[in-house]
């Protein structure tokens, strides 16, 4: 079996090919080509040639991308028209009472993806029990469809009142639209997020419509480009929750792709946790544009069913991956008060850092690392790209050092220090502020830049140690090959737990299980590879926030034990919020089903197979460690020359084609099983 994965980042696209027959894995990094699949095609052709196979020999292709993320963040998505129940035209404008600055009277809010001028009211209404108070007539559906089409939408979102209880009116309006415009993408809230609370449901549906055309266009380009090079393997797309979906499922609900990009690294992090017996991990994925973090506790990644992103509530089942603008391409500057800033602007892959020599003139973290000696100008990407130290120094000098009357080295070190402070705060928010002790956690560093900055972070946060996988630069792409097909279904089910009748509960479960069966059948998942898991969203009566708890299943039915479930909820509430009150009754709000379709994983034995030929380089190099320590001599090593049990005291630099690893003074690296590096503090000097 030959498996291929590709993870598109802001600067680089990582491609991994795993050949189970030979037990070898090959990896490559190519510069990202925004909005096109050119980088993926280039990577596939390069890796296929290196592995001695043809693209037609590839059996499965798993892909993670940021198309949906970029369209949403940059507000470059589709022109969306929203259909709502009469009287609810302002649902997106009103939103919620959450404010980033709660005491400011002048703050502005993000403009809705479907502004008020593109909201069409429909004369219909369901009540809170799913009964039609104002039935939707065929004439009204036709009128509303004409009004929607008159606004020239590129996609339509339908979110009618209480449609999660009865989707008949949404279905009827969608059918009227399809009669007039068969190719127009239409997204219904009863499919995207069948759940109570009007604003989150509507906003999530509008988001699906907003990013849907961009996702569809990208998939169409991919479907054209891959056959052109002779590749006809099934394509699976990474979802925000760590599973993968078929192309059909991704088109049906493109909102599941919104945070596809960083999910692969978390999946691979869970595998590292299991294989190496490291229960508590903070993953740290630093690429060219951003730094992503996640928390793995007792071997399990933290997920969320609702996210607040840029002030907007999105109802998406996602891995909990906070992101900040701190990547190798993050630009350094001096603000009006004379303070150095890093990010949020990024040089990306075009024009890239100044040291790339591609036209960039602004100083980035990559330029700073090169000036400090942490990167080797001749060893970047295994020697395929030579960096220009003079351009890096000039960029930092003109933009920062001269303005502050400091040396170029001190300016570069200040940029690294500030970026580390920003990333350390993100880690504290994810862990310490949620009751976790960072001294019990390892820092799993990957991405093109993670292994360079991790030693500074771990030292500042007093973490247990640093874990660096065999191929940190393409770790997220490797994680894509470890994912299974995943479906999520949910239905509203509001009742206090002591009043729930098991028959009604099982009827609801049967309905979700039938939806899962249809999805499994559609995507060709074999019966032996199917699994289902049940969950319940629960809260104390009177609360507005829920916790999701697993419901044990027994031969396809939910096992319902009121006392046990109440105790589990109290324990979960205690962990999440620091208190629990068993005297308050609790209730179920939603039932969920997660369907898992097992995907065959590649079997590879040689974890240290070379990604590409890299010239041997063993020696020493001066690195600048700040005004206090000045220049220190660091030993330089090649990663593929290290063997299990080898120990390297810092400062040390380890080169490999997909990244550079730095070991700080006062730390020591040891090579473990399958080439995994563990870096620990060995003295108080840093």
TrEMBL record:
Domain Hydantoinase A/oxoprolinase stretches: 201-487
This enzyme's EC code(s): 3.5.2.14
Entry annotated with the keyword Hydrolase: yes
Alphabetized GO MF terms: N-methylhydantoinase (ATP-hydrolyzing) activity
One Pfam family linked to the record: Hydant_A_N
Span of the signal peptide: none
Protein name per Swiss-Prot or TrEMBL: N-methylhydantoinase A
Higher taxonomy: Bacteria, Pseudomonadati, Pseudomonadota, Alphaproteobacteria, Hyphomicrobiales
